Amino acid sequence: MSEKIYAWLLKLYPRPFRKEYAAAALQLFRDRSRVERGPLARLRLWVDILMDLALSLPREHWRRESDWTEMEGAFHLSEEAVCRLAKRDLLHSLLFSIFIALGMTAGWFGSANRVWLFSVYLSLAMIAIWRLVWIPRNERRWRAYRLIVGTDRLQQMQYGHDVTIFKNQIIKINEDQYGLRIFGLREGSQTAITFPLDHHRIRKTASSIWIPVGLAGYEQARARIFEWTNRIGKLRAPWFQDLKPVFFCAASLLPAVLLVHLTSWFLIIAVAYYGLVLFAMGADFIRPLRRPSAHERRNLLLSCCNPPFLVLLVLPMVRIFLPL
Amino acid sequence: MPRRKLDPLPTVAFHILLALANDELHGYAIMRGVEEQTGGRMRLGPGTLYGSLRTMLEAGLIEELDDRPDEEDSKERRRYYRLTAAGRKRAQLEAEKLVDLVRLARTKRILRGLHV
Questions:
Q1: DSSP A178-198
Q2: Residues A164, A149: contact at Cβ < 8 Å?
Q3: Total-model pTM
Q4: Is the complex ipTM higher than 0.90?
Q5: With contacts defined as CB-CB under 8 Å, which chain A residues touch B48?
Q6: Above pLDDT 90, what percent of chain B?
Q7: Interatomic CA distance for residues A43 and B40, integer angstroms
Q8: Would you call B77 and A23 a contact, using CB atoms and an 8 Å cutoff?
């Protein structure tokens, strides 16, 4: 009974701690209760346990999650898997955003003939917000490497970055649904690791190694995304022709959504939404197709050159092409 | 520059290092070892013990054994730990620091009749 209570109490600890040490902690409790019999000893045991909980629970919860993730080594996810995930996430966020955006826009503007147009803009903004929620996880996915079990060594070959780790320097390798994780690179083995990476990219503790080897598969995924958008861009429907520039502008942002830092994304989304709305109002898409007058062309040009719209174009490019 | 963990070395960590000085031990044995060497004044609960062990693992002061020394225990989920060279060095430095403190206490006539 008391073991069950303690097992339940262990659930109060953060998940990484439970995953790593719950079984061992329960075993320790079992050992103690096996030895410490009698009412007084039991009372002392429970006083100890409760005091221990009071002291260690806040400390374990205070530990940042990154402390745990750093210990996990690196993830491996193939390019196909990343593309599949990106596609699925985009589809989910697209459907979700369109439905909510339609409702919100109809409620806000109450103008039936503009609802669809503003819904498109709002959807794009919401997709981006949806994506930014997942950015930390996505970044971890991109920083991946592939380990190939060779004859006497494990070699990582990934888009020009090679890391060779000799088997005798690895204490433990775990395999799970994410791929391989390396634990326990022995001390003093730095010389045996050959890598053409910057040293600041390698973080090592005595018990684990974490090797971010760059954006493995990013280029490929970006090409795929542009392939999808180009395919959509070939649509010949008349209603789509006016939307094309807006669509391509928004589509050019999509690969960046996979990477860009959260704070930057808030800024980008704000200016993107503002810029697109201005652009749409300047172009006045609801008018029938005709050649715009000189005055209208000037307005259109001005609306395209508004500072937020330019920032929208420049910021993602800066973030993409700067070394990560 | 990141803050160095276990600097200064907490008392719990030092006692764990001392308990592991001569043997490879599992959690419960470490707890008993610490209890014995402190004359029952310090009894580590599972949360404190494994929290400290984890920090020390990260700092490279101890390491976990893959093979279990006690075959009878292999059915139970015990995790064995041992001191690393860095851990031994750290314990030695900590002990020397304490020795210096005791020397200082003796020169100040706070501590009498004890030899270090």
A1: TEEEEEEEPTT-GGG-B-SS-
A2: no
A3: 0.43
A4: no
A5: 52, 55-56
A6: 4
A7: 16
A8: yes
